[in-house]
Amino acid sequence: MIQVHSFVFNPFQENTYILFDETREAIIIDPGCYEKDEQKDLTAFIESKDLKVKSLINTHCHVDHVLGNSFVKDHYKVELGIHPIELNLLRAVKSYAFNYGFAGYHGTEPEYYLNEGDKVKFGNSKLEVLFVPGHAPGHIALYSKEQAFCIAGDVLFNRSIGRTDLPGGNFETLIHSIQTKLFVLPDNTVIFPGHGPSTTIGEEKRYNPYCATIK
């Protein structure tokens, strides 16, 4: 069974996720750890659980979600996976990170790409890749049908949605992604977002002021 552990890192209060199962194999999703103490918190948890990190994934490549890429890749000798459309966004971070106070950011390159329908496997577990653009052009989410949860990045939040005023963002595209890729999931599916607390599909279908479908 997959266990989901989250950290809140960097001034953007970004949610970084570690997923692992009974084999102790793990994946890291959207490492926002930039400061040394944040990196220490991440590694201390992994050591405390005796986890073996198998891969690193970005749901999308905005600065707050990729700050820890270089550290994780170097420390755990793992490869980075993103959607191919996100490559330019990932490369662009190095040109503007200092504007947000991240002068020490080190750029990274992906080793593999993830597309709609691909499976992310670790230990005895697997996640399905969903393509959910709108907040970012190559945004993906990671869905566990067996355990009814989704690592959704910045697509759907508790009573909110991802912003669409950044380069590559589009409001209509985002709403379409939510309604055709997320709201078709069972109502009990837990959404683990890129910022803020978790929620469920059923809750957001009823109460989200931006995209509720149940009146």
UniProtKB/TrEMBL annotation:
Its cofactor is Zn(2+). GO terms for molecular function: hydrolase activity; metal ion binding. Keywords: Hydrolase, Metal-binding, Zinc. The keyword Transferase does not apply. Residues 13-195 form the Metallo-beta-lactamase domain. InterPro entries: MBL_Glyoxalase_II (IPR051453), Metallo-B-lactamas (IPR001279), RibonucZ/Hydroxyglut_hydro (IPR036866). This is Metallo-beta-lactamase.
